[in-house]
Specification:
218 residues; alpha+beta; elongated; two-stranded parallel ribbon
Length: 218
């Protein structure tokens, strides 16, 4: 019995190697300052996720069932988190943390940003807990600033700026006049490929732009 108990204890001590907190769990760890969490394109997530998040948003805590079950025998367990960068001063100490009795509870509620492309509706109870911000489609001026930010090393090149402006106008034309569903990253990809050193010319260039500006909706 003694040997068996020892083996069981050793097995329990190893459980932390098999548990890792994801981004949400990591964001809810206790901290001196609120952590930040981005949940991108939540409208493409599992249909139950918004409802599942309600309890977490209300309570600011959750439990790890595997650790709760063994809490009487092993009160604290060291687990890995979503942080990996050992050179990041603000988070390197939290790459591995100690969880007590299987409970994760924040003392500063995280700042959570959720993005959605509006592909589905969300429960009213979920929306009531969110501060909604509708971001309009970027116009020519905003697209120009986006391009300048992504290609800051080429902002002094007249030829690049001229080609980029032509593509921006073509991009907006196809969105408005041709009613194409296009994303801004398609424009950025087109500018990158068309303005590189060995970019295609003539009909090959036109065909490439046509492929890059294909509508997202068939």
């Amino acid at each position: 019995n003694t040997q068996a108990d020892t083996n069981n204890s050793n097995n329990l001590n190893e459980i932390g190697k098999y548990i890792q907190l994801g981004p949400l769990g990591t964001a809810l760890l206790p901290s001196k300052r609120p952590r930040a969490l981005l949940i991108d394109e939540i409208d493409k997530s599992d249909i139950d996720l918004p409802n599942d998040l309600l309890h977490v948003f209300e309570e600011g805590q959750f439990e790890i069932p595997e650790l709760v079950r063994i809490a009487e025998k092993l009160e604290t367990v060291g687990v890995r988190t979503a942080y990996k960068d050992k050179t990041e001063d603000n988070t390197k100490d939290d790459i591995k943390v100690t969880i007590k009795q299987g409970q994760v509870k924040c003392n500063n509620f995280p700042f959570i940003i959720l993005t959605s492309n509006g592909e589905r509706d969300f429960p009213p109870a979920f929306l009531r807990r969110c501060l909604r911000l509708d971001i309009p489609e970027p116009d020519e001026e905003k697209l120009t600033r986006i391009v300048q930010a992504h290609f800051s090393d080429k902002n002094n090149e007249a030829e690049f700026l001229e080609e980029a402006q032509i593509l921006i106008k073509e991009f907006l034309k196809q969105k408005t006049e041709d009613q194409k569903e296009l994303a801004t990253d398609q424009l950025l990809n087109a500018i990158y490929l068309i303005t590189r050193k060995y970019a295609p010319e003539g009909q090959d260039k036109d065909k490439l732009i046509e492929q890059l500006f294909k509508s997202l909706n068939p």
